[in-house]
Amino acid sequence: MENWWENAIVYQIYPRSYQDTNGDGVGDLPGIIERLDYLAWLGITAIWISPCYPSPMADFGYDVSDYKDIHPMFGTLADMERLIEEAHKRDLKVILDFVPNHSSHQHPWFIESRSSRDNPKRDWYYWRDPAPDGGPPNNWLAHFGGGSAWELDEKTGQYYLHLFLPEQPDLNWRNPEVQEAMLDVMRFWFDKGIDGFRVDVSYKVMKDPDYRDNPPNPDWKPGMNPFARLIQKYSENQPDNHEFNRWLRQVADEYEDKVLIGEIYLDIPELVTHYGQGDEFHLPFNFHLIRCEWDAAVISDLIEKYEAALPEGAWPNWVLGNHDQHRFATRTGVAQSGVGMMLLLTLRGTPTMYYGEEIGMEDGDIPLDRLVDPAEINAPGLGLGRDPERTPMQWDRSPNAGFSLPDVTPWLPTANNYPLINVAEQQGLPDSMLSFTRQLITFRQQSQALLKGSYRSLEAGDDVVAFIRETENERVAVVLNLGYSPRSWKIPSDLNGEIILSTRMDKETEIFSRQLYLRRHEGVILR
Ligand code: GLC
Ligand code: CA
To answer: Which of 366, 360, 359 minimizes the C-alpha distance to 383?
Structure first.
């Protein structure tokens, strides 16, 4: 049988920012339910919802204080059950976020663990004695500010490990009780009918058992992320992380048709090892389009390297943006929005898009007094803050862009361009980014060549990425102009050169004596 996620288009919803229904300025589950018809209309086939569990929100939900419930701010468990049901009615799969590396410091497990050295849950987290000088046990650094990854607990005189905020103590997965409790969380949600998990920083869960110091990063310079001062040699991607991957996979395999997606920021050769022998992640997230320079030669080379590195039987995947990265339209310039979307949806493998990309949403401007992300607050001015890419979804031109009631102050300000860039406006325009995205999705989902075909790169000049996707019965070419000047491209003799779709959504693209004339920022699909 065919795996549904191989034909899926995953759409990430950051629940705080999608749709607020009760006027508290924060998105909620009833809001997502209200928008399911829109998502079905758009044509995406799966939603991944960032954490909506009880949480003190030190990291906006990635600090979970109860893995088996819903934060009242987002709704109730019954709302989640209804969401799953309503999504399934519309043939949309539901993927939830699983945060195994750390809990909140307010989780009852941690409260117990820190209560005394001999508490039965002490070993559920990483507790170590101070170094001989009284300082932290080793030199490991925490994300979001780059201070020590160890926090001293005055009461018991030991340090605990947190690779993220001090409010996010790392769980000790080498303890079988932790394994059991956490794998049980997965079963809890699978039993509720969800279709898979996106696994938060899955590659950091296991740590060097000897807690060796990380080596300095020779390429680090002031002005860079302070966390990157060290190479994370002993605090991520440890050999037995693959064993962790297999534990999760075994639980998923107790059920039918469940997908596991790993959040893994590693270079390609390391990344692809997280497929295992087909017994680890179905989809280790491939973030390389986010990390690479937006340049035709670089991208062609990246695709080649990724395709070549994939192990036998591994299904590829691609991502343009997420809640931790500046938006695609902001990184590359909004004029490239269509080209980026066309690339994402025509490459071989499962695409994951981030809410708002379908309308070309850009980062919002966040005034200093509205900043909330600790990544910015703890290391200001380095461009590390994630608030800009988390601004409210832009639905229409009413105050608050239809995200919340007009007189409410949303948790993050709405981006200024919402009166022009919004769903309602673009639904009415045949050549809008939204109309284009929808048409591209429609074409992709009925094209065997795009869904299943092989990938072969084609000769292309400056600024142009070109490739063929084909099955026995269908052959399509994708030609993308990443540049600011028009380009021409020679149509190979084995293509008849019928234009299926242009990012410009018009019939003006010209072909003359087998040369395709691409306008600037234009992408074209040819049959
Ligand atoms: C992941 C999440 C990010 C979060 C971090 C800690 O990288 O995507 O938003 O802050 O893990 O949980
Ligand atoms: Ca709300």
So the answer is: 366
